[in-house]
Amino acid sequence: MLRQTEKCQAAFARGEKVLVGGVNSPVRAFAAVGGTPPTIAKGKGAYVTDIDGNTYIDYVGSYGPLILGHAYEQAATAIGKQAIRGASYGAPTTDETLLAEAIAAAIESVEKVRFVSSGTEAAMTAVRLARGATGRSKIIKCAGGYHGHMDALLVSAGSGATTLGVPSSAGIPASAVADTILVGYNDVNEVKQAFDLANGQVAAVLIEPVAGNMGVVPPETGYLSDLRTLCDGSGALLIFDEVMTGFRVSYGGAQQLYGVRPDITVLGKIIGGGMPVGAIAGPAKLMDHLAPLGSVYQAGTLSGNPVTMACGLATISALRSEGFYEQLEDTSANLEAGILRAAAAANLEGKVCINRVGSMLCCFFRAGPVRNYKEAKSSNLQAFAVYFQAMLQAGIYLPPSQFESIFVSSAHTKIDLKRTVEAAEEAFAEAAKLM
Question: Does the domain formed by 73-319 have CATH 3.40.50.720?
């Protein structure tokens, strides 16, 4: 039965008159998959409902923050209580300290935290901090790695930039990217070559420890530890962008999962529980280079916003529940296995592959393995679009891009997974016609 979409279509058309492209972030526009995006009216647990009354099992999860599902009761209550007391003061609050303490307790490499309002702002500040602390200018980043829309980092970016076929951006002068060095993800030799060519001027290697903006691509064995060794040998800093992976792939993030400590950690998403947030975190000796103690300037009117801090505290508190991550891993593994069974039923075994790390996973419409941006880009995007639309019609809301991660939450049940796998069997059968 086809979804009713008249209200959503009308709402999107209205939005296009006053919002650029009808959206406030490009991937939401469905440019890669076609059709009109649902206009969401509400979310609860593992479900979202659009203004036409269609309800979907949601695997977007606001692109990662909603590890507990939508409208988690304790988080919603914390938001309401704080909003009554005031949304913003431009002054210190106790919850800022409490959330920073919780982050420092969870992540071994962290002693101090600076909160900001977005992951982009956090990555931008991390780069400035690395340059200020080292007195060097060059940054090494991976092709397909997305670290927000800062000029110097929007080079061969993944995620929405790739989805729209625009891997960088107009409006960025050559001078802005002159000190950005691109390497392939999972390619240590390219990093070694970059260090040699940079002649001692590399301030930092900036990387998603689990790439989440070219689909999900895990680090190969030894890759992150090799980067740690290279940075130590050259005097450069290692920055982990854990905006997605922080508190997602384990309580201590990807650095705990893989046993590699970065110098600077970039956080976002889950630490705000769905409210706008970002953070830069690390040892005191580095963090103290930031103003007001040091000469690296950063400021923000809404940094440490009290509503966000309250929501973040309630969220992280829930993640400390006994067995939380074990149960989330079990749910995610069952979903992966079910989707692979569905692909096999459609005679797509060996023609699609799934990469998964914890509750992040991506089904690539190509044979595996997928180890880097180049391999991810060789996916069959037409087949993905057909699969996406068939899943949407069946009431399964996936990220509308081959280059985004599915996010599993603790709110997803066995019944949700069963419905998802049943829908996937039919969706794969439609996509198989293009494979």
Answer: no
